[in-house]
Description:
Strand 1 and strand 2 (27-30) form a beta hairpin. The chain is α/β, with parallel strands linked by helices. The longest helix has 17 residues, at 31-47. Among the domains are: 5-12 and 27-205, Rossmann fold (3-Layer(aba) Sandwich); 370-442, Luciferase, domain 3 (Roll), CATH 2.30.38.10; 449-542, ANL, C-terminal domain (GMP Synthetase, Chain A, domain 3), CATH 3.30.300. Helix 1 runs parallel beside helix 8 (219-228). The termini are far apart.
Amino acid sequence: MEFSFPQVFDTLASAMPDRELLVWRDRRLTYSQVHERSRRLAGYLHSRGLGCRIERDELAGHESGQDHVGLYLYNGNEYLEGMLGCWYTRAASLNVNYRYVEEELQYLFDNSGARAIIYNAVFAPQVAAVRERLPKVELLIQVADDSGNELLAGAVDYEEVLASAPALPDSVEPSPDDLYVLYTGGTTGMPKGVLWRSADVFIAAMGGRGIDGVELESIDALFKQAADSAPFSAVVGPPLMHGAAQWASFLMMCMGATLVIPEVVEKLDPADFLSTLVREKCVSFSMVGDAFARPLIDEIKRGDYDLSGLMIIGSGGAPLSTDNKEALLELVPHATIMDSIGSSETGMQGSNPSNRDSGVTTGGFLPAPGSCVVSEDLSRLLKPGDDETGWFAQTGRVPLGYLDDPEKTARTFPVIDGVRYSVPGDRARWREGGIIDVLGRDSVTINSGGEKIFAEEVEAALKHHPDVYDTVVAGRPSDRWGQEVVAVVRLRDGATAGEEELLAEAALHVARYKLPKAFVFREEIQRSPSGKADYRWAREQVE
């Protein structure tokens, strides 16, 4: 069965029309209300000429035949409505990193060929600064907020658009071939637009598999799953401009969830996050690795929060260290931590569930359907127990390619023995017994004295020291080693650990040749809004 996103959301809205879909500040919107608002937005976008121009079967994998709409938004109902509204009119939304500066914004909108931008009023100055250099952008839709910024000249107000929009014509028929576009974060290079068929990413990451992990066989099966589901609420922690947050949100929607957004959306505010969770009686929350875990752990210890109803802690998009898992389970001993791994180019690839009974590990994952390891030379599929390091790969439901980049598409999606794989660049080993150890992204691997050292492995070793609040590891040139490992470290407030103590702790967990040759101490570690390490920034610090 092939699903389009409008077909999926039509089904959810009909199965649970009066169930709350989204709670944020004073807003409480049901599935049917979000459905109506999204279709109103779609009607307006269609009236402005946005939609599908060339059908998928006439295009190569790296090509798009649909109009693109940038979502330059903080978390809120407008983000979900923006995605759905685009899909209903057969345009494709794309995620915009709201921390980008002028040059980066111009690059993203140029690279994507965006014809429209939906943006929070707080970002109006940034949009105004680049709009004259974006001849393809024909439509600006501004979402009012607390910033007080006036409507830009030529822009239209979001709520006024919804109030006056014409109906979406019945002749617009979304297809399972319609695109889902996800721009990578660009922490190791310029952002790239990953093109998915909506039918594929729905199965790979956004709820198209049932609780048993098997693909849903029919739209009736999705309806029954949603209609029979017990209502529950879940906090959406990461920014929706991050793929992991989009995936987690749609996955939970297919399970019947009410999505709860913390009141503070500009950053992680641990007290607001936990207060929102308690007030709405949420049974789960999603986060991105250690960048979320550390502040939340500290706030739970400081505050008085009733977490007796919290059952699931979901993490993805960045590593979650063993120490932080153990600390969370000490504070919420009845919970299960679902640590997931995947990438923009693969979807969901594996999980590592942890609770007090099972114990805690980090880095080893139970593979999802289609997850595998291929050899370093991309010539063959490795098997569990093979004693060699290869590439973490995915087959089956994988993307079509990178937007307008046929060369990189061919490199990242190779064909091995007639089977197409996605190989985005993570090193891995497949253990006897089926667990896949993911070692880290090859693009941030450090080659020191002929040995390959994975930055994330050294970071995890340093995080065992109780004084380390956060750390990012990078390489710098070395006359002796070619490259040498340097750790950028943020200590906890009031902590005094020195280099010798940190080295002694790390030496308990990794081989001596992997230990940092030097340390750089900083008051803050720069990360993306989603919590991913910014390795370009780290290299600047160590060099």
